[in-house]
Inverse folding.
């Protein structure tokens, strides 16, 4: 391997040349594809004759011309990564290149590749350089045309960005299509698709009356499964008009579903390409979670048309500018389409389960990273999910209207530009004349801030004080941190559980009024900006219970001095539903940690009756949303609890979580049984909040019950499995049965495979259910499944299901004999030769090896060392593995 080169944000330089127009012409053949590119080049500064460096990887250069003249030896250099024009003419010129590529041999799934016989592209972040020689960086924005020529019977459908302006038949059974995209774009948004596809067609009329043709393309047999995707697309288009004032800007919008895709989906201008698992759904084959994911991701990619495409990133360090913002937008969209609280709970759980560990490990990086070796490695939960939290904080600070003013100004200022995170910040600030103090630190400092808060009530003065102190833990390259600007939404509950009206707060030597326009205020946003800081509420008639960080107003770890009684009180009464859930989670985490200590001392495990009572009250509270109940009775995940331990102990945490679940099931068996009976689905599957909430609650209850050793329950779960009329219920019942090894499990798994073997998306669920199972010694099963006829290591979804699923089960992946580590180590090396991006995602499972005991550390480290020393290792895997070892 060439010595991997690290790229730094601080080294950003404007390009020496801009590209104005780009005319591409593809000849798609079975053996090879020929790409001709004609680019009009404009030097940035007049008279500059700096070399023009074009990126290009795995390309065969056939010819290169400037202003129509073929270049001769000495006038250019070609290497494995670049084509350099040593002394281009001064002034504007036309550059023409012809290259050849081999899409059918491309297993990396970036650039132009084949998926199930069809051609498709993936260019973000740096895949365009695998298609043609180009300045492959997002601040080069050009207008494109794209001509595609191919055999008509093999590739009847030819798609690219923008409008179709010409098409026709050619000699020899070929045909062509010419597409023109009127909008300037960076090359990472270029896309081409060619193949045997059919479309579901619909239309959307925009707020200004433009009629847009909507087309969702799939192989013919999948077409019936696109109804929900179309519904989601139309809902997203409407929502973006209503909530952000953003209208669609072309007469056509295409979505293509492909089975082989590294990521979830891609927002190419007017030609979104989707991983098929995020488009295709039918009630019989997709779960509620799939339906919800499709809604969110269709929204996400559509929303990118404004946040990403019309306004794009100056360089890849700014990725969160488009991703954090677009995730925030898709979260809000899903909230408005379903339940806001439940959506928020899901998003916060995701942050805690995946982003907190990243922020505390060797790959910790700021929302805007300072450096990278492979950009692919920075499509992370930090850039996406923490980035979305950063955007959410602007809204928390400015309110809905102020936030909207900010986004309006952002679009007005930067339409058609490639910009930075500061530009977004400045738009928010300027539109509101806001004081954001040191808010920008959220983009540059990694690590999850830890905020401690203590409270005190002064009965005589009728004041209530909150004292905050914050620290940001050290992360690689950032040993010392500055205090951050943390918006803490807070309210006070009186002894009856009602919100107290807030009058004024004394802070920083000033008394500020909270109430506004005569309306009582129950939640206020405290601006915590210092290492230590106090806020004192005045006119507080009785000792309150504070409800802090309402709605999870900042991505921090909050440690408060609330007692268990306070927390049970909040669980029962808080008007902020999110914080009701949160109170239950804090109690559950405490409980689990205390029992982990017992387990490690070999003391018997016990379950606090007050906890059981708290859960029972939630279960029986008919005023609560059913999906909320399901979330509130779900214990924090094993990873989340391990994250709170000095030395992570997967066996202890697993045993404790299992113990508590079983105890709850046996003590609340009657209640759980009722929930199952009362919430069975009606015949017809409806994807709306009410129906989904019923199913979720019923299946959560069923999952609890199935942890019992009980004939009657086994019968019940089998009955649910057999009578299920949709995949949500069927799969939940299967998962419930699969909790315990034995004949019932084996039979059900075999039956399920038999029923669904024709549907690869369902088969992937079947793989994942088995691979992530906690049954002892599961690594052997997973090994066997690798050679199952339905498995294919070249397909990312199958790898994520089988291998990713295995790594998600702490007991088996972290098995003390090292079998899990060895398994993953071998797979990563094998996978890396085919698809470095997928291999690199898998190797990340090792990254927190230092959190475990010495035996495990040594075993994991040995695997990482072996990987790093493998021949021909990709930069992708090298970066993750070597940073993990450092
Ligand atoms: N930009 C895509 C998104 O919407 C993600 C992606 C990145 C897809 C890189 C493919 C490659 O989030
Ligand atoms: Zn995105």
């Amino acid at each position: 391997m060439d010595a991997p080169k690290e790229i730094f944000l601080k080294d950003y330089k404007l390009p020496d040349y801009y590209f104005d127009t780009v005319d591409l012409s593809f000849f798609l053949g079975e053996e090879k594809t020929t790409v001709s590119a004609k680019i009009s080049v404009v030097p940035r500064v007049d008279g500059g004759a700096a070399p023009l460096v074009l990126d290009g990887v795995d390309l065969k250069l056939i010819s290169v011309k400037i202003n129509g003249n073929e270049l001769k030896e000495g006038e250019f250099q070609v290497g494995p990564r670049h084509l350099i024009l040593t002394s281009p003419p001064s002034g504007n010129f036309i550059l023409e290149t012809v290259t050849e590529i081999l899409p059918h041999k491309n297993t990396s799934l970036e650039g132009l590749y084949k998926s199930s016989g069809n051609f498709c592209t993936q260019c973000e972040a740096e895949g365009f350089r695998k298609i043609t020689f180009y300045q492959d960086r997002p601040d080069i924005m050009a207008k494109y045309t794209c001509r595609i020529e191919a055999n008509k019977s093999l590739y009847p459908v030819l798609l690219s960005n923008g409008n179709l302006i010409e098409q026709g038949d050619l000699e020899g059974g070929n045909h062509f299509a010419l597409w023109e995209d009127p909008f300037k774009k960076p090359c990472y948004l270029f896309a081409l698709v060619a193949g045997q596809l059919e479309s579901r067609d619909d239309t959307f009329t925009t707020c200004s009356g433009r009629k847009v043709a909507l087309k969702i393309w799939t192989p013919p047999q999948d077409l019936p499964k696109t109804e929900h995707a179309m519904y989601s697309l139309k809902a997203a288009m409407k929502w973006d008009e209503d909530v952000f004032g953003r209208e669609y800007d072309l007469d056509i919008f295409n979505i293509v579903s492909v089975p082989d895709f590294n990521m979830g989906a891609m927002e190419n201008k007017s030609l979104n390409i989707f991983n098929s698992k995020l488009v295709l759904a039918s009630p019989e084959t997709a779960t509620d979670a799939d339906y919800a994911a499709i809604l969110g991701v269709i929204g996400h990619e559509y929303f990118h048309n404004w946040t990403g495409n019309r306004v794009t990133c100056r360089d890849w360090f700014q990725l969160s500018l488009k991703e954090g913002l677009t995730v925030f937008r898709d979260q809000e969209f899903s909230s408005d389409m379903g339940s806001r609280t439940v959506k928020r709970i899901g998003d916060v759980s995701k942050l805690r389960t995946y982003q907190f560990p990243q922020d505390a490990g060797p790959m910790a990086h700021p929302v805007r990273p300072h450096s990278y070796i492979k950009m692919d490695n920075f499509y992370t939960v930090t850039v996406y999910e923490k980035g979305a939290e950063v955007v959410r904080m602007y809204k928390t600070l400015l309110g809905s209207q102020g936030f909207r003013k900010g986004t309006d100004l952002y679009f007005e200022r930067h339409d058609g530009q490639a910009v930075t995170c500061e530009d977004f910040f400045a738009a928010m600030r300027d539109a509101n004349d806001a004081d954001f103090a040191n808010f920008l630190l959220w983009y540059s400092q990694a690590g999850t801030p830890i905020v401690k808060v203590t409270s005190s009530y002064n009965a005589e003065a009728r004041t209530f004080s909150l004292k905050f102190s914050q620290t940001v833990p050290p992360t690689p390259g950032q040993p010392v941190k500055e205090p951050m600007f943390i918006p803490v939404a807070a309210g006070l509950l009186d002894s009856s559980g009602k919100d107290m009206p807030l009058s004024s707060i004394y802070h920083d030597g000033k008394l500020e009024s909270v109430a506004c326009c005569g309306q009582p205020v129950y939640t206020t946003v405290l601006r915590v900006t210092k290492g230590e800081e106090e806020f004192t509420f005045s006119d507080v008639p009785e000792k309150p219970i504070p409800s802090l960080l309402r709605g999870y107003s900042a991505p921090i770890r909050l440690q408060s001095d609330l007692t268990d009684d306070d927390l049970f009180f909040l669980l029962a009464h808080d008007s902020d539903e999110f914080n009701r859930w949160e109170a239950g989670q804090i109690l559950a985490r405490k409980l689990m940690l205390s029992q982990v200590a017992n387990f490690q001392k070999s003391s018997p495990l016990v379950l606090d009756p007050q906890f059981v009572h708290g859960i029972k009250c939630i279960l029986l509270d008919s005023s609560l949303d059913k999906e909320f109940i399901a979330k509130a009775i779900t214990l924090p995940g094993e990873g989340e609890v391990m994250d709170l331990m000095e030395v992570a102990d997967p066996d202890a945490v697993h045993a404790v979580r299992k113990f508590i679940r079983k105890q709850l099931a046996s003590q609340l068996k009657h209640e759980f049984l009722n929930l199952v009976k009362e919430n069975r689905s009606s015949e017809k599957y409806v994807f709306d909040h009410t129906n989904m909430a019923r199913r979720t609650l019923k299946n959560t209850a069923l999952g609890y019950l199935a942890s019992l050793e009980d004939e009657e329950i086994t019968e019940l779960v089998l009955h649910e499995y057999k009578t299920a009329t949709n995949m949500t219920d069927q799969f939940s019942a299967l998962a419930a049965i699969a909790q315990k090894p034995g004949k019932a499990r084996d039979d059900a798994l075999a039956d399920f495979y038999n029923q669904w073997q024709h549907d690869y998306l369902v088969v992937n669920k079947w793989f994942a259910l088995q691979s992530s199972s906690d049954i002892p010694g599961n690594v052997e099963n997973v090994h066997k499944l690798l050679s199952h006829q339905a498995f294919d290591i070249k397909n990312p979804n199958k790898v994520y299901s089988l291998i990713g699923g295995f790594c998600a089960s702490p007991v088996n992946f972290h098995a003390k004999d090292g079998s899990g580590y060895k398994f993953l180590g071998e797979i990563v090396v094998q996978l890396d030769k085919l698809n470095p991006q997928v291999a690199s995602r898998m190797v990340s499972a090792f990254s927190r090896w230092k959190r475990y005991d010495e035996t495990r550390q040594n075993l994991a480290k040995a695997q990482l060392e072996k990987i790093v020393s493998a021949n021909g290792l990709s930069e992708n895997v090298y970066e993750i593995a070597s940073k993990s070892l450092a």
